[in-house]
Write a structure and sequence with these properties.
binds adenosine-5'-diphosphate, globular, alpha/beta, five-stranded parallel β-sheet
Length: about 190
């Protein structure tokens, strides 16, 4: 099964993806994690993207599409991928569909975590105080939220049109959200 975890920044996608990896035979493909690893390694790619990420802007489509493409064979071997933080633009969504199609695969389900903006702002303020992730500062977070609303939220009708969108309330506890995701996925054929 190939699954997209969809939602605004700090909605809890990474937390839920990690849990799904433990429970199902799937690989988490988080472009944010891949980009942070590139920055940590000091690679040319890392140098190219660090300022963009710190400001909360989107990295170019070409870069993230290439990162995902590299990892598709590994995800297939594991039994499926959980896409976390990808796709974020229509171009990325179309590229993902084309890449999967050429490999005889497809996206099976898109799980949208609904969390209101006020709760997101509170969560990220707490996370910034704890971990100091540079793009969790209030100014960058506003840019990330705007990028989500302007460029990523328009993907919802794209996936709704494909009949793949399921909505989950992301405002509850981690366990309650996990349960809601499991129930949503029970209806999806692998
Ligand atoms: P969050 O979902 O909390 O915003 P991520 O770890 O998914 O965090 O993303 C962090 C940053 O990495 C984004 O603000 C953006 O700069 C970059 N990034 C991650 N994934 C993508 C993507 N698919 N397209 C463009 N930029 C991305």
């Amino acid at each position: 099964m190939n699954l997209i975890l969809f939602g605004p920044p700090a909605a809890g996608k990474g937390t839920q993806a990690k849990r799904l990896v433990e429970q199902r035979r799937m690989v988490q493909l988080s472009t944010g994690d891949m980009l942070r690893a590139a920055i940590a390694s000091g690679s040319d790619l890392g140098k190219q993207v660090s300022g963009i990420m710190e400001r909360g802007e989107l990295v170019s489509d070409d870069i993230v599409i290439a990162l995902i493409e590299e990892r598709l064979p590994e995800a297939e071997a594991a039994g499926g991928a959980i896409f976390d933080g990808f796709p974020r633009t229509l171009a990325q969504a179309q590229a993902l569909d084309a890449m999967l199609k050429s490999r005889g695969r497809k996206i099976d389900s898109v799980v949208r975590l609904r969390v209101d903006d006020e709760a997101l702002l509170q969560r990220v303020a707490g996370r910034f105080a704890e971990s100091g992730r540079p793009d969790d500062n209030p100014d960058s977070f506003k840019v990330r939220l705007a990028a989500y609303n302007d460029q990523t939220a328009p993907l919802l009708p794209y996936y709704e049109g494909q009949g793949k969108l399921v909505e989950v309330d992301g405002m509850g506890t981690i366990e309650a959200v996990a349960k809601a995701i499991d129930e949503a996925l029970d209806g999806v054929a692998a």
